Amino acid sequence: MNTKHKVILFHILLFLFIFIYFLRLYPFLPYNGDDWYFGGALRKPWPMWGVFNPIKVLPEVLEPLTGYISAFLIYPVTGDYIGAFTVSYALVIAIIMTFFCFMYYVFMKRKIALSGKTAAALELLFFLFFFVSFKSWGDQCKYFGFWTSDVNCFFNYPIPGMFNAALVMLLALEDMTLEVVEKWSSTKKGLVLLFIYFSIFSSIQMSIILSGYCLVRIVYDMLIKNRFGKSCNLKEYLKRSWFYITIIGVWFGSLIFEAKGWRAHLVSDSGGFSHQSLLSTISGFTGLISQMNTLFLIISLLSIILSIFFIVRKKDESEKQTDIRVLFGTICLNVICLTYLLLVYTKAGGRYAKRPDAMWAFICLFFFLVSISLAIIIKHIPVIKSLFPLGIVILFVLMINQNFHRNIYPMDYRTCKAIDEYIINQVITADRTGKNEVEVRVPDDHQEENWPHTIYMADWLQNTLYAHHLIEKRLKITIVPDEAVNDMFYTYDRNKMEAFHDLEQSRSLYSIIQRKVFGK
């Protein structure tokens, strides 16, 4: 088996693992109003002025398409409508996440000049960072790097983030000068343009990864190349930086579009920039960081410091310049991204800074910075590579440890699936019996607007069921919260569940003595 086949096999196995993880260990299903709306409402695939989300082309096209895959390809085979959503969500997530990891592998191999095996090992470490960084031993874990509050948020945050991060790694492999782009084939130009289009028009929170990278490249070309190279020549500068300047310009245009949307107006009505709101946002972010594993943070910071130390002492000037550009460029991108997100969430509401999905761009870039630091350290201390197998196995075991909190929904997956089926069966029965109106009983969730089974999800639910051909005509649905539905499905109170107990705590010497001597 040659190297190319090994790389393909490695990423096929990674894809299968991710698919199984999101199919069985962390399954998604449509559960709240947003999930049902975007499960079937396929928007026009271009920015639209004045709508609720003017530039969210990628999530609002990809999520409904995933719903169509579940309804028209998987459901006819399995006969399980809700289960088909879980399969299609896991499939799409696995494809995008595997591509994201593959681009990381290519970047580390070509840009950092690592061997294939070392790049693959760092790829696995980078991937595992997302799953173990929030796990604290002896306590329950609420978050991980791909945590979202629902499936709709996964399409709105991590997926656009992975698109933008993968594109940045692709662009970083070569200088995007006019001469370079002119040598590309029409197919390559078209694919890169498509990639850029969906990265910019995805999410103003996640597109900062791409625009921030372009800003770093523009500043680098302006301050470094022109200062220490030939005298500044505007024409030559534009030929070298036009690609990044164009992306920045389009990105600014997307911000204007988004500012004129309904969502932006709602945010403007509910908050604004103030000293208090900024402090609240910073407090939310520090709260998020405080939930990360302390040992992981310490090792990460030490790795970054040690990598800087090794770069300063490096003698090979060519390799030194490459490491400086990559490491300090990543640090600058982290700073730009964090500053931007804090400013955005100061306007939109500090609660977003508490969430790992809303802060995914910074989290991803921080993990990337740590892995870059490890790559630089490995070049100076090659023996560290012998620790990779042990480290990967330890992190993998921590990743799949299901004693930790594992569900994003109010109840377990099977209960939520049963509730979904109960709700849609009421609509399907009404449709098949010729009714034009139906009262749909849902759990009384005792939340504002009865979230997650909102009163206003009636139109969204019937729209998705109609788009997926589960009902023959559109019905007038009235959502009715009902405590009787709670009694049917809510068989236990999550707030009264037994707390997590570490395995070793239950085997402590004290507990053994109690059982042996006192019979307790």
Walk me through this protein's architecture.
- The chain has 520 residues and is an all-alpha fold.
- It is 66% helix and 3% strand.
- It contains 21 helices and two strands.
- Strands 1-2 form a two-stranded parallel sheet.
- Helix 1 runs antiparallel to helix 4, helix 7 packs antiparallel against helix 9 (186-200) and helix 13 crosses helix 15 (317-348).
- The relative contact order is 0.12.
Brief sketch in words of this structure:
The chain is an all-alpha fold and 520 residues long. It has helices at 3-25, 33-40, 57-78, 81-110, 116-132, 151-156, 158-171, 178-182, 186-200, 208-228, 234-259, 262-270, 275-290, 294-313, 317-348, 360-380, 388-400, 413-432, 458-467, 483-489, 509-517; strands spanning 437-443, 476-482.
Helix content: 55-70%
Provide the spatial order of strands within the biggest beta sheet.
1-2
Order of helices and strands: HHHHHHHHHHHHHHHHHHEHEHH
The chain-level structural class is: mainly alpha
Question: What is the C-alpha radius of gyration, as a whole number of Å?
Answer: 25 Å
Q: If you average the pLDDT, what whole number results?
A: 87
What composes the largest sheet? 2 strands, parallel
Low-confidence stretches: none
What share of the residues does DSSP label as strand, in percent?
under 5%
Distance between the termini: 59 Å
> What's the number of extended β-strand segments?
2
Shape: globular
